[in-house]
Amino acid sequence: MVFICPVRKGGGGVDLARFDLNLLLVFDAVMRERSVLRASRTLNLTQSAVSHALGRLRQLLDDELFLRDPAGMRPTPRAEALAVPVAEALALLRAGLGPTRFDPAEARGTFTLAASDYVAVALLPHFLAALRDQAPGVTLRIFPLGRLDLAMQMDNGRVDLAISWFETLPTRFRRMELVADRETIVAPPGHPLTQGPLTLERLLATPHIAVDLTGLDEAGDSGFVEERGLKRRTRIERLANEHAVPLAIQEKPPALTVPSYLMVPDLVMASGMIATLPRRLAEATRHRHDLVLLDPPFDYPAIRLDVIWHGMTENSPAHVWLRALLTEAVARAGQTPPAASGFTPSRPVGGEPGSG
Description:
about 20% strand; 5-stranded mixed β-sheet; D-Maltodextrin-Binding Protein, domain 2; single chain; alpha/beta
């Protein structure tokens, strides 16, 4: 249970029986939008009403909470500390006061899923087919996995699920393994590496293309980015280096770094360079190009893709249904084309769709 205890200047507590909980709705909206104008539109209030509410909350907490800068409303450390517990408290209230059943056939709303283009191409077609079949009134929004504020968006309830390779998770998140994949080397037809045995020495001597989902080199040498305690991999080719390449060679930068997996096949064909891709994606896209798939000349662990969600949605009937649908669809992804998947409407299990 999360307790929000606003404190008056001088250390006196606030009587929660007289505390206006609408102030927390305003705080949460400004925290998410970083703009009084956008928060007012989200809440269907006037800008002056939102500004007045912020003023009251600032007085109650004896903190500015948000400071104006060129990028918008920048939260103070006090506001940052309050963001997660306020979002969780509001989510608990919504869950407790909301519908107890979720009927996908009758549901209306939007679910938001954070995923890379790799996941969108290799895993989501079956999921989308199942979603359209079982919940025709529900829409799906894909949130770019390369953004650096994924944890914040999940804390704020704006992202329902995220699919990626996660190293460490804060205790407020839950995880479940979706699928395992492996790396493969892709090369254009006639490339020297397609002739003769593929050795580590030949591989390392060949210019290659790397994918960094952030586009900002935020992962550095580790291949991971961390935000609010959530650590996730954004460069899969670092995995091969970690397990097969001496440290001195690991420091050699790729010839080209791009923020999207789907950019790679065309660039490989145009440049004559090679790249490392997840096997499922390489198999899904090879028919559009004449790519040659090569097994790396070393052993390395499989790529583990997990789906994660915030603990505040753990028992939400809508989210329970969504997670079950996703895992079932991914399990079928390698067995049946989406058009022939044959999904049938499921029984009602509860709630409303998630964020959006």
